[in-house]
């Protein structure tokens, strides 16, 4: 047991040490932590919540449901393992019994749940205002950690059982989606009963007494909302007892499992380690490395030369599951729905859609192609290979963001010209963002600290935006402050495309050195 605790302690200490392994990393880490602390303290000093149109109960319920579904779908749709390669080698080659390995998993759930729980709860004080004091925040963090603990423990149990009984994870996923389907049917019934008034439906759905008894999601919402309203005996204690009881049952089930999971866990730890190395060194990982490729026929027209890179990516995208292949558009639509339900202005929605789309574009497959030696052997120019490798992900980002913004423009009753303007602006900066990211990758390489890479990436994007901003100022001056919005957007798009082509040309050396990469 001492060795197990030592391993867990060293794991987290080494993560902290890596953040200070160089002077730039140390400076950026200190600045990042200081910024988090400042925002965190300032959020408790806000006099009112920006979401006064929605109750704290509805906010908590929506966040818990969304993140819970996201985590479960992520775990049940991927083969990324449950141990890193270093941990697996240490545990499986050392003098440890199976139950000691399982104990390591059980103990590691607590710090992981607390860390993820903190990031889940980080913005709650801003959203709820004075309804959430610091003391209640700490209790809420514990409740959310219990919620996350159930997710982790249940996934570990499903993963281990699936190691011997192949197909168990698939059955668990079907049960999970059937459960969500039942919740969706109940929501549709409430929506129909309220004459399709979305805001009223959401409020009545999440705040109804029956939802409190919905396993896991309802219990968590019930605990937090009861804490905020002071219903300790009739709400907080029963719901927390339910969460604690399920955590205890899952711990007992996992500790007493009889399945031999060593071989599968060790095999999957290699894939997990590669993903973690990518994230650690460059702040991103290939999205296909997280997702299963299904064995199903896909119709793709194969191209020759540099176009083969494009064809390969399209083939792999076609073999992804429905959730994996459409996760971008689903997330963008969630932002639109979130803005509508909670009464945010359109500017907030477009900012969230843009941020979500561009963030996910950093995990596209072109990151992986830049590291593969076979691209060096394709008899085409480096510039052409770079364009073809980026094209599938860029098109996907533009389509998903464009659809979400079009739906948002209709929902917010914007004029057609204004809607087209926002979509064109999004397209122009989506293109610029991706090629600025490639240029960062070309200059820094793939072995730099992730925090440093992220900061420099943001700097390059800001610098790359300057020409378009200058053009906007010139147009505003020439038109006496009343420019045509469509013409302005088209001008911005043209400027950003030209800047992107220049960045792509300057970045073509990525493929000229690919035979030296891992």
TrEMBL record:
InterPro entries: Put_ABC_export (IPR031584). Keywords: Membrane, Transmembrane, Transmembrane helix. Pfam families: ABC_export. The lineage of its organism: Bacteria, Bacillati, Bacillota, Clostridia, Eubacteriales. The keyword Membrane applies. The keyword Transmembrane applies. This is ABC exporter. The chain crosses the membrane at residues 25-46, 58-76, 101-125, 137-159, 175-192, 232-255, 333-358, 386-410, 422-444, 456-478, 490-511.
